[in-house]
Design a protein that fits this description.
alpha/beta, Alpha-Beta Plaits, seven-stranded mixed sheet, 25 helices, elongated
C-alpha cells in the first residue's frame, strides 16, 4: 500500500478544506445544518422558573367586551399586571414592549404604571438603537417617567446572520465604549436577591454572565426549544382578572404564589401586534421568543458552542485519511469495480455515522462541523480515484487487455491485485467442481460443417459460461463441447456448493429455454449432462515456467468428472455428490435432492451416494412417481431385488431412472452378496 501517497493526499485535501473553512466558504451551508439540527433536536424542556404572559386575541376580546378598552390598552392595566407579580414576589417582570409616547389616556395613566414599576422595583424595560432614526447614537427607550422607574433597560438590537436568520443573541451590547445588558441578561440580573440599580455589576448573576463563553461580539448561539408554546404562555386577561378578583376578595383564576421566585416575560402575541423574525425554527417567529430563549439558556446553562478549531482540523484530517486509506485498501484487495462499490458504501456509512454523531453532540450543546467534513470526504475520495486511475489504473488496464483472451475476469482481477500469483504453485482448498458434456456430441459434430459447428459451440458455450461467471464460478477450461469450472477459488465463496448446484439447474433451464435456437443450428435436440462434487483439491497455476493455467487437481475433481458421465447409466442429466447436497442445504438451498443410488465409480473401491437436484415445482409435479422410485430404491438397498423390480416396473414408462433400475435388477445375480447389497457398480466412466 502506498503510505506516502495516502499521507500526501490527506495533507493536500485537509489543507485546502481547512483554508476554505477559515475563509468562510462553508459558513452559509454550515448555518443551514445548524437550522436542521435545531429543528430535529429541539425539545420542550424549559426552565420551571420562566413564565410568559401574552396579550393574545382572547385578551383583546376580553378587554373590549368586559372592560370597554380599545387598543391600545391603558397603561394602568400593565401596572396591574406588575402589581399581581409584586404580590407573587416574582424575581423580575420584563416588558418586550416600547412605551415611547405618552399614554392617550392621560398623564395619570402613565403615573399609575410608573408607580407600579417603582413599588415592585424589579421591572425591566427595553432599549435599542435605531440606525434609521435622525439620532442613531441615542437609544430609543420608553418615556422618561416609565424608563426612570424601571430596574434596568435591556437592549434588544438583534444580530441576524447573512441570511437574516437569528441564531445568536448577545449577553451584552457594547456601543461607544459603554456596555448594556441585553433584555434576557437584564432580567437575569434583576432577579438577584441583592440587586441594586446603581451597583448591579456586583451581583453574582452579573458575574455569572461574564463567565459565560461568548464570541467577540458577546454573543452566544441559542439552543431553541420547539416553539414559544413550550413555555406554557398565560393570557394577560387571566392575570388581570385574577388580580381584580383578589382586590375584591374573590377566588382568582390564577394564584400569585404559583409565580413566586419566577421570571416573567411580557409580550404581544395577537395578530398584527407582535414583531416577527426569522429563526431556525420558523420564518415568522415572535421576536420576544428570541429573548425568552436566551434567558432559558442562561437559567439551564444550555448553550450551543462551536467546536474548537483544533478539533475541526483533526476531524478534517481524520476523515480525509480514513477515506483515502480505505479506498487504497479496497483497491488492493478487490479491484477497481468492487472498490467503487465498497468505498461508496463505506462513504455513505461514514457520512451517516458522522451525521448521527453531529446530532447527538448538538443535543449536548456542541456544534460540530458537517459541511467541511463532507467536502473533505468527497474531495479525498475524488483525488484518490483520480490518482489511482492515472497510475496503477494504466498498468491494470494493460494486464486486463493482455490476458482477457486467456483467463477468466475473476482470475485476471486476482492477478492485478496479487501479481505474485503470476508464478507456478498451488494450494489445497475445498471447492465445488462442475463438469458438463453434451449428449451424443460426437455424432452431432460429424453432421455439421466447420462453420455450423463453430456457430453452435459459440452460442452454446457463451450461454453456459455467462451463467457460471455470473454466479462467481471460475472457468477451468473448455474441451470441445465440455465445460469444466469450479467455485471458491481463486476468490473465497462460503456458499460455493449452493452456487455450483443452483448454477447447474440454471444451465439446464437455459438450454431448455433456447432449445429451438440450438436445434435450428445443429438439426437435433440438445441435452447436457452435468456432474458436481464438493471436496478438497489443489488449485493454482500449473504448467511450465513459461506457460501455465489456473486449474485444479485431485480425487474430488475426478469424482465430479465421473458423476457427469454416470448420468447416462441412470437416464439423468444432473447429478451431485452427498457432500455438495449437505453444504448446499447448510447455506439455505431450496432445491429438492432425490437420492439416486450408492455408486461405486470406476477407479474407486468405496461407494458414494449421488443425488438428482431439482426445483421444488418440478419435484412436486412428479411426486408420486418419485415416492414410488424411493420405495424401489430402498428395496434395492436391502438386496430385495424382486420387490424393487416390481416398484420400478410400475413407473418405468414415466421415469427413465426407474427403467434403468429395472434393467439393473434384471441383470443382477441372485442372491445378492452381502457386501454388494444396494451398491450400483459403474461399468464405464
Amino acid at each position: 500500500m502506498k503510505i506516502k501517497r495516502i499521507l500526501l493526499i490527506t495533507i493536500i485535501t485537509s489543507a485546502f478544506i481547512f483554508c476554505v473553512n477559515l475563509l468562510g466558504g462553508f459558513t452559509f451551508l454550515e448555518n443551514k445544518t445548524y437550522d436542521f439540527r435545531t429543528k430535529i433536536t429541539a425539545s420542550n424542556s424549559t426552565s420551571e422558573e420562566l413564565f410568559v404572559i401574552l396579550i393574545d386575541q382572547n385578551s383583546l376580546d376580553w378587554a373590549s367586551e368586559q372592560m370597554n378598552w380599545s387598543w391600545p390598552w391603558p397603561r394602568s392595566a400593565y401596572g396591574d399586571i406588575v402589581n399581581f407579580f409584586n404580590l407573587a414576589n416574582s424575581k423580575a417582570v420584563t416588558f418586550d414592549v416600547i412605551f415611547s409616547e405618552d399614554s392617550i389616556y392621560g398623564k395619570e395613566d402613565d403615573e399609575n404604571f410608573a408607580k407600579a414599576c417603582k413599588d415592585f422595583g424589579k421591572v425591566v424595560q427595553i432599549q435599542f438603537y435605531d440606525s434609521a432614526s435622525n439620532n442613531p447614537e441615542i437609544p430609543v427607550t420608553s418615556i422618561s417617567k416609565i424608563d426612570s422607574n424601571s430596574a434596568l433597560q435591556g437592549n434588544i438590537n438583534s444580530i441576524p446572520d447573512s441570511d437574516s436568520i437569528i441564531r445568536r443573541c448577545r449577553l451584552f451590547y457594547n456601543r461607544n465604549n459603554e456596555e448594556f445588558p441585553t433584555l434576557a441578561s437584564s432580567t437575569f440580573i434583576v432577579g438577584s436577591e441583592n440587586f441594586s440599580k446603581d451597583n448591579f455589576k456586583s451581583t453574582e448573576e452579573y458575574k455569572h454572565l461574564k463567565k459565560i463563553k461568548t464570541d467577540k461580539d458577546n454573543s452566544v448561539l441559542l439552543k431553541y426549544k420547539k416553539g414559544l408554546e413550550s413555555y406554557i404562555p398565560y393570557s394577560a386577561s387571566d392575570i388581570l382578572q385574577s388580580y381584580y378578583a383578589i382586590q375584591k376578595g374573590e377566588e382568582p383564576i390564577l394564584y400569585p404564589e404559583d409565580f413566586t421566585d419566577s421570571y416573567i416575560f411580557f409580550g404581544y402575541y395577537a395578530p398584527g401586534l407582535f414583531d416577527i423574525c426569522s429563526t431556525p425554527l420558523s420564518s415568522t417567529y415572535p421576536g420576544v421568543g428570541v429573548h425568552i430563549t436566551l434567558l432559558d439558556n442562561i437559567l439551564q446553562n444550555e448553550f450551543i458552542h462551536k467546536s474548537h478549531i483544533i478539533l475541526n482540523l483533526f476531524l478534517i484530517l481524520f476523515t480525509a485519511f480514513i477515506t483515502t486509506f480505505l479506498i487504497q485498501f479496497f483497491e488492493r484487495k478487490f479491484g477497481i469495480k468492487r472498490t467503487i462499490l465498497f468505498s461508496s458504501l463505506f462513504i455513505i456509512i461514514l457520512i451517516l455515522s458522522y451525521l448521527t454523531i453531529c446530532f447527538y453532540a448538538f443535543r449536548l450543546g456542541l456544534w460540530l462541523p458537517f459541511v467541511s467534513i463532507l467536502f473533505s470526504i468527497i474531495l479525498s475520495y475524488t483525488i484518490t480515484f483520480f490518482v489511482s486511475y492515472n497510475t496503477e489504473g494504466k498498468q491494470k488496464r494493460y494486464i486486463k487487455e493482455a490476458f482477457k483472451q486467456y483467463l477468466s475476469p475473476v482470475v485476471i482481477e486476482q492477478l492485478i491485485l496479487n501479481p505474485d500469483k503470476l508464478k507456478l504453485g498451488g494450494e489445497r482448498r475445498e471447492i465445488s467442481i462442475f463438469f458438463s458434456d453434451i449428449q451424443g456430441f460426437t455424432s452431432i459434430s460429424e453432421k455439421l460443417s466447420p462453420e455450423k459447428l463453430t456457430e453452435f459451440l459459440n452460442v452454446y458455450l457463451s450461454k453456459i459460461t455467462d451463467i457460471i461467471l455470473e454466479s462467481g464460478g471460475t472457468i477451468d477450461k473448455y474441451e470441445g463441447d465440455a465445460i469444466i469450472a469450479f467455485w471458491n477459488a481463486p476468490t473465497e465463496i462460503s456458499n460455493h456448493a449452493q452456487r455450483a448446484i443452483e448454477t447447474a439447474i440454471k444451465c439446464q433451464k437455459e438450454i431448455q429455454k433456447n432449445k429451438n435456437e440450438l436445434q435450428k443450428i445443429c438439426n437435433t435436440e440438445i441435452k447436457t449432462r452435468i456432474g458436481i462434487n464438493t471436496g478438497f483439491a489443489v488449485v493454482g497455476n500449473m504448467g511450465s515456467s513459461k506457460r501455465f493455467d489456473y486449474t485444479m487437481l485431485g480425487d474430488s475433481v475426478n469424482l465430479a468428472s465421473r458423476l457427469e458421465g454416470i448420468n447416462k447409466q441412470f437416464g439423468l442429466y444432473t447429478l451431485c455428490s452427498e457432500e455438495t447436497k449437505l453444504q448446499a442445504e447448510k447455506f439455505g438451498s431450496k432445491l429438492i435432492f432425490v437420492e439416486i443410488a450408492k455408486v461405486q465409480v470406476v477407479g474407486k473401491s468405496i461407494a458414494v451416494k449421488i443425488f438428482n437436484p431439482m426445483q421444488k415445482e418440478d419435484y412436486t409435479a412428479n411426486k408420486l412417481l418419485w415416492n414410488k422410485f424411493e420405495e424401489g430404491r430402498n428395496f434395492f438397498y436391502q438386496g430385495e431385488i424382486e420387490k424393487a423390480k416390481l416398484c420400478f416396473k410400475s413407473i418405468a414408462q414415466e421415469l427413465p431412472v426407474a427403467q434403468k433400475y429395472f434393467e439393473k435388477c434384471n441383470s443382477t445375480k441372485l442372491p445378492v452378496e452381502e457386501n454388494l447389497k444396494g451398491i450400483w457398480i459403474a461399468t464405464e466412466k
